[in-house]
Structures are given as C-alpha cells and as structure tokens.
Amino acid sequence: MTLPLFDGIPELHLEWALQRFTRVELEAGVQLIEEGEADEDMLIVESGGLDIFTGDTHLGTAAAGQLVGEAALFGYPVRTASVVTSTPCRILLLNRAGYAELRDSNSPVAHRLEKKALELVTDRLRTVGERIANASEGTPVKSHATAGLFTRVARMFGGGGQRRTDHLDVPFVLRQTRMFGDAPIDALRSLGQVMEQFSFGPGAFLCTQGEMGETFFVLASGKVEVLIGTPDGGVEQLAQLQPGAAFGQMALVSDEPRMASCVAVDKVAVVTLSRDAFEPIAVADTPAGSALRVALIRSLSEQLAYANGQLAQLDWVARSRSEGDVRRLMMASAGVEANLGGR
After folding, report:
1. How many CB atoms lie within 10 A of CB 157?
2. Which residues of 57-93 are buried (b: 16+ CB within 10 A; e: fewer)?
3. Tens digit of pLDDT for each residue in 26-46?
4. I want to staple 180 with a disulfide (CB 3.0 to 4.6 A). Which of 63, 143, 174, 227 is the partner?
5. Which positions of the chain have pLDDT values less than 70?
C-alpha cells in the first residue's frame, strides 16, 4: 500500500527506505504507547485507526497515513500520551537508528517525515494553546502590557539599546543549545549564513508581550528575564534565561502575538532567525533544512509537553472566572512562548 505521505518519491528510493521500517499487524484494543514511558519509535498508520489519551481524557484519533509518536524519534523520548488501537491495524514502526540511516543518506523519505512531523507538532501546539485560552469558559486571556509597563521595566534594568554585530561564532553558539547540540557542524555553518547577530543593552526588549513576533532568538551571552504584565498593572517574572537558551520559536510557525516579554538584564548577545529566512530553509531537502526541522520538532515537542501539563493543572479554571484564574492562564500561555518546557 502506498501512503499519500510518500506521494512523488521515486519507487526505488521508497523501496529502500521502507526496508528500515518494521511492519506489524494488530487487533483492536492493543496498547501501542503508554504515557510516561521512554521510547524512541515513531508509528505510521497504514490501515485502521488509533485512539489517543492522556490519563482518562480522549485527545483524538489517528487514521491511515498519519504519524504518531514523532517526538520520540527526533529526541523527546518520554511519551506524553497513550495510544490504543481502535480497530484492527497495520502499522509501520521506525526507530532512531533507522531514521538516522535515512537522514545520513539524504533520503527524500527522511525529509518528508521531518516536514510532516513539524507540521503535526505545530498544529498540536496551536490546539493546546487554544484550549488554554478557552479554559476560562469565555474569560478573555489578553495582554495586559502597556507603554507604562514597558517604561517601568526598562528603568529597572537600564536604558536598553540595540546594535547589529558580527563577532559571534554562530555554529558554536548553536552547538551550546539543546535544540541544535547534535546537529552536523556543516549544517550549522549553513544556518549561520542566514542568521543575524545583535547585542542589546540592559533594559532592552528583545520581544514584547502583545506584539506579533517574527524572530527566533538564541542567547549567546548575558541574561534575559521573561516577564508578563498582570491584570493589576504589575509585572511578574516567569524565568531568567541563561546563555544557550533558545526562545521565541513560536514566531516562526504561528501568527499569534507574543504572550510574554523578554528583557535584557545586562548586556546580551543573541543570534536570530527571521521568519522570512526560516521559511525557505524549512522546506529545503538539505542538511541545513533537516537540522532546522529536527531542532524545531524537538523544541516544540518539549513546549507541547509543558503546555499539556499546564492545561491539566488549569482544568479547574473552567469553573471560575477570577482575575487570579486569568493570571494563571496568561502564565501558562507565556510559559509556552518562553520555551519553559525546554529548560
């Protein structure tokens, strides 16, 4: 059976690639994945259907042609949901060793899997974000950041300021992150050619709550505070980011406004990737494209796990509409924005 996922891939390439998969046939009611277990296999449903749960909550289904468990294949091995066959199924399994062989041979199947996995994790993160926003039964979760807030925060740290630089060793900076730590050095060099470098003075806003974002940041030096404006006009700290932190990834894949502000505590240096630079690389069948896709799948999967956990803690919010509840919702959304799940 040829899956639509692999449409257009030359037959010889596909036949060779499918030898790296294991095909299994299962009856209905078989548990394939258990939430919380460590595993590294990704599943592709050839036929039949799967049910997906977290605890007793039904999250959704997977039908023929869909991927399940993709986060484990790309470096996030702890399962965040359980999966059970709902009908008799035929499943293709791919482990990391098989994927690595596909990737290292520059197989078009590897590139197709990466693109599909990135699409899936992005869609799931958007869905969880919407559920967080709706958890208050209609209470709007909106930015409470104001011009006065920004002025007060800037005064806390300094006068700010931004300038373009070119002194950073970008591949080295990327290698210090969880996202890109195991990427091939040649791929990082290629990414470095399209990334920009900036330095910011204390008090400068790298990104601002409520604004549309188009830039992803990797912190090379200095410290950055992650802050949100609260309904009473105050400021709440969510985290302090250290060198090697990556943040703002959602701006590359989402059209939602920033849910938190990131402010330089001292002089900081960053490398950045704009959405305009990201888009052609993300679809390219090149080592740099593969490295970027895998890094984002890994990072967004960590954010998804964090968001799922926050959503579970916010279940009770649906029964209350207090300012405190709105604050918790804002913090949950802002934690996803700041990549707190990957820290």
Report:
1. 17
2. eebeebebebbbbbbbbbbbeebbbbbbbbeebebbe
3. 999 999 999 888 888 999 999
4. 174
5. 1-2, 132-160, 231-232, 310-343
Q: How far apart are CA 306 and CA 341, in angstroms?
A: 5
Distance CA 249, CA 274 (A): 10
Domains of the chain, each with CATH number or no CATH: 4-103 (2.60.120.10), 147-342 (2.60.120.10)
Distance (Å, rounded) from C-alpha 71 to C-alpha 191?
22
Q: Check residue 210 and give its pLDDT.
A: 85
Q: Work out the percent of the chain whose per-residue pLDDT is above 70.
A: 80
CA dihedral (171, 246, 163, 274) positive or negative: positive
Q: What is the pTM of this model?
A: 0.82
Q: Which tens digits make up the pLDDT trace of 68-98?
A: 988 889 887 788 789 999 999 999 999 999 9
In total, the chain counts a number of residues equal to: 343
At residue 143, the pLDDT reads: 47
Q: CA–CA separation, 336 vs 259, rounded Å?
A: 8
Are 155 and 275 in contact by the 8 Å Cβ rule? The answer is no
